[in-house]
Every structure is written in structure tokens, then in C-alpha cells.
Amino acid sequence: MTDLHQDPVSEDFSTSPLADGLSLVAWIFLLVALGAGVGILFGADAWYDGLLKPTFNPPTSVFGPVWTVLYALMAVALWLVWRGRQDDSAMMRRTALRLFWVQFALNLLWSPLFFGLHSPGLAFADICLLWMAVLATALAFGRVRPLAGYLLVPYVLWVSFALVLNGTIWLMNL
After folding, report:
1. What is the Cα–Cα distance from 93 to 123, expressed in whole angstroms?
2. What pTM, to 2 d.p., does this model score?
3. Cα gap 132→64, rounded to integer Å
4. For residue 36, which of 68, 70, 63 has the smallest C-alpha distance?
5. Domain coordinates of the chain in residue numbers?
């Protein structure tokens, strides 16, 4: 017998633990694979090696592991917001998810601009927009699911560092 007072939306939020786990793994795999794919296609090359860099520039070997962790954290945060809860505002979730995909597109665009086009200036413009989009996403995610917002804090910090690094490399090589 069906309860006439049951909220039909609540069924959208009740999935099996196995389905939840598989969807989380799928999001992690997707984001890490997309990030790694762009990194492989547009990575450090002889041009980059020849650029002047500040003393605080990390070794190239640091970037892969850092980005892998950041993409995994992004995926968990995205999954938390995407999965939602009964008491979440649908409009807040949609806005947060749209912001996520905007920042993710800006994120993926950075490597082709910097390494592919050899344009630290264009990459700097992109990372400035990216920083604003990441911050907006973290705040929007935090309104939907506080943990999702907190999971993006390392990403905000890393993009802040990368923005300074990108800008410094650009200015040093004008």
C-alpha cells in the first residue's frame, strides 16, 4: 500500500549503498581521467623547461600527484552535491552544479593555453577567471552540503598558488 503523504522526490534520494559507492567511484574516475588526459596532451615540454621561473616553482613531478588528489576531492564534492538530500533546494543544487562545470571547463582550458599555445598571458587570464569560479563553486557547494564546500578548500588554495605562479612566470618572460 502506498502512503499518499509520502514525498515522491524522496525516492530519488534513497539508493543502495552499492549504487552510491559505484557512482562515487565513477565521478572520481571521470574527473581524474579528464584532468590527466589534458595533462598528458598538454604537459610540460622543452618550451616550458626554457622559461625563467621563480624560486618557489615546484618541481614538475609535484603537479601530477597534486592534481590527482584535487580532482578526486572535486569529484567527491561534486558527488555530494549531485546526489543531494531531501532538504536541499533544487535551485541551489542546479546553480552549484552549473558553477562546477564552468570552473571545470576553465580548469581544463588552462593547460592548452599555457603549454599548447605557449601563452602564459592567456593562461593567466584563464586562471584569474578560474580562481573566481572555483571560489564561487566552493561557496555554492558549501550552501548545499557544507562538507562539499570544505572539500574544495585545497583546490582554492592550490589555484591561488598557481595564479601567483602563472603570473610570475608570465612577467618574468615578457
Report:
1. 29
2. 0.88
3. 23
4. 68
5. 17-172
- As a whole number of angstroms, the distance between CA 104 and CA 82 comes to 15
pLDDT at 20: 84
Tell me how far CA of residue 124 lies from CA of 64, 103, 131, in angstroms: 20, 14, 10
Q: How far apart are CA 59 and CA 80, in angstroms?
A: 33
pLDDT of residue 8: 36
Q: What is the DSSP string of the chain?
A: ---TTS-GGGGGG---HHHHHHHHHHHHHHHHHHHHHHHHHT---HHHHTS---TTPPPHHHHHHHHHHHHHHHHHHHHHHHH--TTS-HHHHHHHHHHHHHHHHHHHHHHIIIIIS--HHHHHHHHHHHHHHHHHHHHHHHHH-HHHHHHTHHHHHHHHHHHHHHHHHHHHT-
pLDDT at 14: 55
Report mean pLDDT in 10-residue bins for the chain, 174 residues. Answer: 40 68 94 96 95 97 96 97 79 95 98 98 98 98 96 98 98 97
Tell which residue, 105, 110, 130, 129, has the closest CA to residue 120: 110
Please name the fold of domain 17-172. Answer: Ferritin (1.20.1260)
CB–CB of 79/30 below 8 Å? no
Encode pLDDT of 89-114 as tens digits: 889 999 999 999 999 999 999 999 99
